[in-house]
Structure formats: structure tokens, C-alpha cells
Design goal:
DUF1003; rod-shaped; mainly alpha; transmembrane; 208 residues
């Protein structure tokens, strides 16, 4: 028995698949949904409305004008009413299916939009914080007017220091000039006194 089950590929620890499952029609929901959307999209076009109007008018005119043996749907056009009812019976579920798929897409897009908006809000908050930090750091930096005022004050200090240094140098030069002027008469007087001394001594020695 176990050998037969192994040959068939069946297992005792799993339930046997029902045979009715093979009889059920299988279809891909995505493919069927796409086909339903295409049909619903075509039903909502002006081309379909114009074609249906032409078919109904030709149907009615032919069944009225044609001879009785050639007519296939006499008044009150029961076959035409049945065809239109059958079309409406299939068109309504197809349109609802297409609307449901569109609603699902709208929900997915809405979720993505929410995620995008949350990301944008986070990015905006981050940028706002960065801008605030930059403003604070820029406020702590020296401005152009402050630098100009400081440079002007520094130039004024340098000018005053240069003027003081120039005045000191001028005073030192004046002092040197005064010293030189005082030393020059003494130097000129010293040679004169040296020459007159020996002459006087010679003159004093001659009478002896």
C-alpha cells in the first residue's frame, strides 16, 4: 500500500486533493480585470454609443420596412430588448469591476502620496532647522558695518600712534640738534686756547 502511494506521489500526512478542484474553471484575476477595464473603457466612448445607435436604428427600420417574411424581429422588438438587456447585464458588472480596480489603484496612489508628503514634511522640517542654525551662526559672525567700524578705529589708533612717534622723533632730533650746537662752540674754542697759550709763553720767555 505504501509503495503504491509512493508511486502515485501521495502522502499520508496530507489530505488528498479533491477531484472537483480540477473541474472548476481557473482564471487569472489580473488578466480578467484588465479585460474588464478595456471593455468598460470602450463602453464609455462615443464610438460605442454611435455604433449602438446605428445598430438599433437599422434593426428597427429593417423590421418595419422589410416585407413580413423577411422580418426576424417584429414589433415590439422582443429580440432587440433581450439583446440590450443581456448587454446591460454584462456591462454593469464589468464596469463595477473596473471601478473597483480603479479604487484599489487610487488607494495605493493615496498611500504613496501620504508617504511622499510625510517625507516632504520631514525634509522641510530638517531644512527649516538647518536654516535656523545657519541664521544663528551668521548672527554670531561679524557684519560688514562692524568690520568697517573696527577698521576705522584701528586706523585711527595707528594714525595717533604714528603722530606720537613722529612727535617723539622730532623732539629727539631737536634735542640732538641742541646738543650738537652746544658742542660746536666748545670745540671751536678749544683750538683757539691751545694756540694762544704757547705764543704767550714764548712772548714771556723772550725778555729773559
Amino acid at each position: 500500500m505504501t509503495r503504491l502511494l509512493r508511486r502515485r506521489g501521495e502522502r499520508l500526512d496530507q489530505p488528498r486533493p479533491s477531484r472537483r478542484a480540477h473541474l472548476r474553471p481557473s482564471y487569472e484575476p489580473e488578466t480578467f480585470g484588465r479585460a474588464a477595464e478595456r471593455i468598460a473603457r470602450f463602453l464609455g466612448t462615443a464610438r460605442f454609443i454611435a455604433a449602438q445607435t446605428v445598430v438599433v436604428v437599422v434593426w428597427v427600420v429593417y423590421n418595419i420596412v422589410a416585407p413580413p417574411p423577411a422580418r426576424f424581429d417584429n414589433y415590439p422588438f422582443i429580440f432587440l430588448t433581450l439583446a440590450l438587456s443581456l448587454q446591460a447585464a454584462y456591462a454593469a458588472p464589468l464596469i463595477l469591476l473596473a471601478q473597483n480596480r480603479q479604487d484599489d489603484r487610487d488607494r495605493a496612489n493615496l498611500a504613496q502620496d501620504r508617504e511622499t508628503s510625510v517625507r516632504l514634511q520631514d525634509d522641510t522640517g530638517y531644512l527649516a532647522r538647518e536654516l535656523a542654525a545657519m541664521r544663528v551662526s551668521i548672527g554670531e559672525l561679524a557684519s560688514r558695518d562692524f568690520l568697517r567700524s573696527e577698521l576705522k578705529a584701528l586706523l585711527a589708533d595707528l594714525d595717533s600712534a604714528n603722530s606720537d612717534a613722529g612727535a617723539g622723533a622730532r623732539g629727539e632730533r631737536a634735542r640732538r640738534d641742541r646738543r650738537e650746537r652746544r658742542q660746536r662752540p666748545e670745540e671751536t674754542a678749544a683750538p683757539r686756547s691751545g694756540v694762544s697759550g704757547p705764543a704767550r709763553s714764548g712772548r714771556s720767555r723772550r725778555p729773559d
